[in-house]
Design goal:
43% of the residues lie in helices and 19% in strands. It is an alpha/beta fold and 424 residues long. A hairpin with a 7-residue loop joins strand 14 and strand 15. It is globular, with a radius of gyration of 24 Å.
């Protein structure tokens, strides 16, 4: 173990040294690295999928649940999407070096801010090998070095992808040491990593609530947390019924195993009898199990084709990550807002309404990273927001919130131009 910790420390020092050179690396070199990565994801597809198959079979044999297996799985379609996302990041403006908020003070000093990288990003994540690419690419483009530590369940996939990134970056002329990967799955190394605040400027965990809680409580450096999504969609009494069915169906069914999928549906009592049977029929065809409160159950119980379960208190505030949804009938927008405040996780919340006043109140009063009017919460995603990719979705308020792209991986320094001023 001592040698492993020494190796980790050496990788940390190498990343720190690389970060100093990365801070002023040209956009041309960084974009070349990204184009290399995008091309290699397709050229080395067979190698990556073979590694992923090993992980998937082992995870399946260990009894991993379907939601986590879906996150672990790579296939040709997902690799092609990853490659396109990398190219999308390459096409974005380089945030490093941007000068903004310039102004002249009364004493003649010209004062402003210049955008700079954070330095070294540590990433600890579970099950999702695509995170290896997303975080590496965003760190490269934003001028940050990165130390990657994937989960045991995806070790072969993550190692293959990290090796690809390292080789592609090296061919482009990126400083050696920029992308570091910890392949040893010993938990003690994570404990040590959490104390490396002299090296790591920001730690980003991606995974379940247990992992995020552990890292938040034990890290000695700033931690950017999020990813736990208890997402509500509220169907207001003025909602267009057809639109409301389509939005709730998409939010639950399009990909139920991710953090921005619908977990709880709140329906105004005035529209519940006309709306709920239509949605329940659509959800039933997709295999959605509805955990209904008494009022929703009384409306829907006459149809044997619906998959209905009486809701319990544990269903509210639960991230299902599967084809299960809580359903509750409410008497007012106020009741919906109170429910979201009590049970939401600050991730993504939506209202479907034709009432401008209700929409405005929802936007103003819901405390979440992303608040939608008449749209599916499934859009909370770096790629969908035009960020190319994301290192995560923050549900906290400092220093960034929502999908985290290039600018969220930078800070700034004050720059001051004078002509001989001295302080009196």
């Amino acid at each position: 173990m001592k040698s492993s910790i020494e190796e980790l420390e050496a990788k940390g020092r190498a990343a720190k040294a690389a970060s100093r050179k990365l801070a002023y690396l040209s956009t041309e070199v960084k974009n070349k690295a990204l184009h290399n990565i995008a091309a290699d994801l397709l050229a080395r597809k067979d190698e990556i999928l073979t590694a992923n198959e090993i992980d998937y079979r082992e995870a399946q044999a260990s009894g991993m649940n379907e939601a986590m297996l879906d996150r672990l799985l790579l296939n040709s379609e997902r690799l092609e999407a990853m490659s396109k996302d990398v190219l999308a990041v390459a096409a974005l403006p380089d945030p490093v070096g941007e000068v903004f908020d310039m102004r002249t003070l009364p004493n003649g000093l010209l004062l402003g801010k210049k955008r700079v990288p954070l330095g070294v990003i540590g990433a600890i994540y579970e099950s999702r090998p695509n995170v290896t690419i997303d975080i590496s690419v965003l760190c490269l483009k934003s001028g940050n070095a990165v130390i990657l530590r994937g989960g045991r369940e995806a070790v072969h996939s993550s190692s293959a992808l990290a090796g690809l990134v390292q080789e592609a970056a090296k061919r482009a002329g990126v400083p050696e040491g920029t992308v570091q990967v910890i392949e040893n799955t010993d938990r003690a190394l994570v404990n040590h990593l959490l104390k490396m605040n002299s090296v790591i400027d920001l730690l980003i965990p991606r995974g379940g609530a247990e992992l995020i809680k552990f890292i938040s409580e034990n890290a000695s450096m700033p931690v950017l947390t999020g990813g736990i999504g208890v997402c509500h969609t509220y169907i207001d009494k003025t909602a267009d019924v057809a639109r409301a069915v389509a939005i709730a169906f998409n939010a639950k069914v399009q990909r139920p195993t991710v953090c921005n999928a619908l977990d709880t549906l709140l329906v105004h009592a005035d529209i519940a009898r006309s709306y709920l049977p239509l949605l329940a029929a659509a959800w039933a065809r997709a295999g959605v199990e509805m955990h209904c409160d008494e009022r929703a159950l009384s409306i829907l119980k006459s149809s044997p084709s619906f998959r209905l379960v009486p809701a319990t208190d544990e269903d509210w505030g639960k991230e299902f990550l599967s084809l299960v949804a809580g359903v509750k009938v409410v008497d007012s927008l106020d009741e919906a807002l109170e429910h979201i405040e009590r049970h939401g996780s600050g991730h993504s919340e939506a209202i479907v309404t034709e009432d401008y006043t209700a929409a405005t109140r929802f936007l103003n009063e819901v405390d979440a990273a992303c608040v939608y009017v008449n749209a599916s919460t499934r859009f909370t995603d770096g790629g969908q927001f035009g960020l190319g990719a994301e290192v995560g979705i923050s549900t906290q308020k400092m220093h960034a919130r929502g999908p985290l792209g290039l600018k969220e991986l930078t800070s700034y320094k004050w720059i001051i131009f004078g002509n001989g001023q001295i302080r009196p």
